[in-house]
Each structure stands twice: as C-alpha cells, then as structure tokens.
C-alpha cells in the first residue's frame, strides 16, 4: 500500500476512535511510548505518528496497531488495517451491481438494517460499530452496513447473495426494487 493510501486509512481509523478507545490505546502503549509523549496524544493521529517514529507502525508493518485495536475490541478497524491490500486490485465484476444496489437498499431498509446485517454474516461488533457511527441516520447506517459487508467479503460478495439475504429477511419489495434497478442499468 502506498504511503498516501496508508495515511488515508490511518486518518479514517483515527476518526472512528472514541475518547475511551484512545484512552485504552494510550494505556496499552505506555511502556513503548513513554509518559512524556503520551501526554501530547490527543487523537489517534498523534498516537499513530509516535508509533511510526518508533518504527512500530509503517505501511508494511501494521501488526502491532492491528493487535492493539483487537485488544480494545475494535476488530472492525483491525480488519480494515490488515485487509488493506495492493493499490491496484483487479476490478470486481460485481462492484457495479453492488454500487447500484446500495442506494436502493438504503432507501428502503429503515430500522431493519441490523436484521439484514446478521443475515449477511456480519458480527455483532461490526453492527455496533456501524450503529455507533450513524446512530440517528438509518439510511447512512444501511449504506455503511453494505460497505462493511463488502469489506469483510473481500471479492467474494455477489449481488445474488444480497438479494437472497433480502428475501430471507422478508424484504421482498426491496429485493424486487434492486433487481429492477439492475435491469434499468443493464447490469443483469
């Protein structure tokens, strides 16, 4: 992973850390970082800079931070860090279909987005993470849910899996609308 993409990933991870999570991370690294440097840590970014200076974190060396994130029960962020692959992955033939389906699902899912997430095989920790990022915006929670599912599936997710999960959750109208949208775009 290139340095700009790695930095972008670290920025995103930092933005998703709560104050409590940051305090837990500071506690876990106190021996490696030292009291003086810990005092200046006010965000995940500052902590990541210190870890980089101490050669505990780099684009090709993420195991230490991934382990820390797992220790504070942020497996979703740890997975994002360890799943980040090459800069130019092969194009996913299902990506256009899934991109077209996401807004349709988000518009029609409402409060039942967790039910779909469970059917798609997402862990409770990932569902809680999505809920924490979008506590009052159900549409954004649904979009984030689909992003998490795609991230965890890493190339194995297919539109048919999404449609089957919708139907299994009794969201037949939404599944029909997804299929209609795909036909409109000529993606079926």
Automatic annotation (TrEMBL):
Pfam families: Death, DED. GO terms for biological process: extrinsic apoptotic signaling pathway; positive regulation of innate immune response; regulation of apoptotic process. GO terms for cellular component: CD95 death-inducing signaling complex. Residues 104-182 form the Death domain. It comes from the Eukaryota. Residues 5-83 form the DED domain. One of its GO terms (molecular function) is caspase binding. SUPFAM superfamilies: DEATH domain (SSF47986). CDD domains: DED_FADD. Coiled coil: none annotated. This is Fas (tnfrsf6)-associated via death domain. The lineage of its organism: Eukaryota, Metazoa, Chordata, Craniata, Vertebrata.
């Amino acid at each position: 992973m290139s340095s700009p993409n790695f930095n972008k990933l670290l920025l995103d991870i930092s933005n998703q850390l709560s104050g409590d999570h940051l305090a837990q991370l500071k506690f876990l690294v106190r021996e490696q970082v030292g009291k003086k440097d810990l005092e200046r840590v006010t965000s995940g970014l500052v902590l990541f800079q210190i870890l980089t200076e101490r050669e505990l974190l780099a684009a090709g060396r993420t195991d230490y931070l991934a382990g820390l994130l797992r220790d504070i029960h942020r497996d979703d962020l740890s997975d994002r860090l360890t799943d980040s692959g090459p800069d130019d992955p092969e194009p996913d033939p299902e990506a256009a279909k899934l991109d077209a389906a996401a807004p349709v699902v988000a518009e029609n899912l409402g409060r039942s987005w967790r039910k779909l997430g469970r059917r798609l095989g997402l862990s409770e920790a990932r569902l809680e993470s999505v809920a924490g990022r979008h506590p009052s915006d159900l549409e954004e929670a649904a979009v984030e849910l689909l992003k998490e599912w795609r991230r965890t599936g890493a190339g194995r997710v297919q539109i048919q899996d999404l449609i089957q999960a919708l139907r299994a959750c009794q969201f037949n109208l939404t599944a029909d609308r997804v299929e209609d949208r795909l036909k409109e775009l000529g993606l079926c």
